[in-house]
Amino acid sequence: MPAPEVDWVRWDDLPPILNSAAILDKAFKRAAKAHGRGRTRAERAKSGSVARVHSLGDTISSTLERYVKAFPSIGRLPPFYRDLMHILVNVETVRHDLGTVDWCRKKVLAFSKAYSREIGRSSDAGLVEVRRKEAYGRISSLVHQVAESLERLEAARKRLSSVPLIDLEAPTVVVAGMANVGKSQFVAAVSTAKPKVAQYPFTTKEISLGHTERGHLRIQVIDTPGLLDRPAERRNPIEQQAASALKNLAKLVIFLYDPTETCGFTMPEQIHLFERLREEFPDVRFVEVENKVDLKNSGSGRMKVSALTGKGVDKVLDHMAALLTNRAPGASPPQRAD
To answer: Cβ neighbours of residue 233 under 8 Å, at least 6 residues apart?
Structure first.
């Protein structure tokens, strides 16, 4: 049975969606530049009206068609992007709004063709002008009817454009843990990512992406929002992004601890979250790493780093690369580093 086709999308390539007034303004400006042809003044006036109505309808319908086609088919997205779309936007509303905009596109095109034909057949100069204005009014009314759908789609586009382009086939390391344990600082230390780092919890609101090279291996490193120790059904949208990355992207998970407990969570709480995640994602390989070794060395058998000073970072990178190429002892998932 053939594998289902999937859409590969660059979210930041989604075109900005103009509001109804801006679409009409663009279309009327183009229509005003359309000119007619003919031997007499009356012929030129009539063909000019046909050209302007046709231009108005064509500009609006092609603009709306571009918006509709730019959004990917949700059912054809890879699982990670499909999950993320459900987390970030109301998918049913997006579907409804795309359908509404496409309905408008078809009606505008039908009106412009019908009025163009009627104007072209008319021999009354006064009636030509009446029909042109009528076409303008009815087409404008249609576009204004979908104003709210256009605004919602633009809001969805802005939200989705924050999603990084992830290579779903690349060796991928996801960094997870509770809030404020230093995940973003760790990702910045081991990769090209420049996530926001601050000394308060829940700084990371969405995933961010970086890369690092170890020998000939290029590793994709993903920073995720902090997780709380609670069941999957109680996670908020920010936590759901992290869980989706673990489920759909991770070839390896670095679970980061803060043994100083300055993150606001005790070590038993952090360990309990680790055990919950390992149980929830049994096919994912986990490596436990304690951060902030410059402040406290717990003496445990876990790997230790200081994302702030860089101590231990190279050792963790070497271990990551070895596990991803299955060269480390005990590399079968799930594998604890202690």
So the answer is: none
The structure tokens 């009356």 sit at 42
- The correct CATH number of 172-324 out of 3.40.910.10, 3.40.50.300, 3.40.630.30, 3.40.710.10 is 3.40.50.300
- CA pair distance 195, 202, nearest whole angstrom: 12
Q: 11-160: which CATH architecture? A: Up-down Bundle (1.20)
The DSSP secondary-structure symbol of 69 reads: H
What is d(CA 140, CA 135) in angstroms, rounded to the nearest whole number? 8
pTM for this structure? Answer: 0.72
User: What are 292's two structure tokens?
Assistant: 């902030």
75-97 pLDDT, tens digit per residue, is 788 887 887 788 788 889 999 99
Among left, alpha and beta (phi > 0; psi -120 to 50; other), residue 261 is left
pLDDT digits (tens, 9 = 90+) for 99-156: 999 999 999 999 999 988 888 888 777 788 888 899 999 999 999 999 999 999 999 9
CA 37/CA 43 separation, integer angstroms: 7
Q: Domain segments of the chain: what residues?
A: 11-160, 172-324
* 241: CB partners within 8 A, 6+ apart: 84, 87, 88, 206, 207, 224, 225
Residues 66, 112: Cα–Cα separation, whole Å: 18
